[in-house]
Design a protein that fits this description.
Layout (H helix, E strand, L loop, with lengths): L3 H6 L1 H11 L5 H16 L3 H8 L15 H19 L4 H20 L35 H27 L11 H9 L1
Helix pairs in contact: 3-5, 3-6, 5-6
């Protein structure tokens, strides 16, 4: 599975569109939302902690139910509820979509890693799904001392982060993340009528 390098690099793609909706929101609210988004990008890996706490072992069921779209939907509901109350910066549904996309990106990145795959459709399908064309070497917890494995993991993830950054910059340069809110058709009609 990818390390937090790949998972949190998705924030570079999510944040410009989110920040656009947060114009006028105090800095404290923006920091809370960014922090919650970063936590959400790695939240599926909380199964490592629960395995340790409940005695099954830290990586025994890694990639299991917490790596499903059902878990993403549930997490997104909590994410949206907490941020809606804490910041009142965006509509609950917008927060839910941000939370679902952030959590769901974790599931998809893990599916594109060498390994046993993830249970992305749990509880409807117990099978682990893995891409036939993995793009990440993934963290090798079974060989913690292998410098080659970890170097490959870091290299592929830094390349991925660079790609996310470049694509986001390209979109930004072409106006996809325009910092100015574009007037709607009804706004244009009202200004013409005035």
């Amino acid at each position: 599975m990818p390390s937090p390098i790949a998972h949190t690099s998705i924030a570079m793609a999510l944040w410009p569109a989110t920040a656009r909706k947060l114009r006028g929101t105090p800095a404290r609210g923006r920091i809370i939302i960014l922090g919650a988004t970063l936590v959400t990008l790695v939240a599926a890996d909380f199964d490592i902690l629960t395995g340790s706490i409940f005695g099954s072992g830290p990586f025994v069921d890694h990639g299991g139910p917490t790596h499903s779209f059902v878990a993403a939907a549930i997490w997104a509901m909590a994410f949206a509820t907490v941020l809606s109350i804490a910041t009142r910066a965006m509509h609950w549904t917008t927060f839910w979509m941000l939370g679902f996309i952030a959590y769901g990106s974790h599931i998809m990145l893990d599916a594109f890693t060498f390994g046993r795959g993830v249970r992305m459709f749990w509880p409807f399908l117990a099978d682990r799904i893995a891409s036939p064309l993995p793009i990440f070497a993934g963290v090798r917890h079974s060989t913690p001392a292998s410098i080659v494995d970890h170097t490959l993991t870091i290299a592929t993830e830094l390349l991925f982060a660079l790609l996310v950054w470049r694509v986001t910059a390209w979109w930004y340069q072409r106006g996809y993340y325009d910092s100015q809110e574009q007037p709607s058709a009804s706004d244009k009609e009202q200004s013409v009528a005035s």
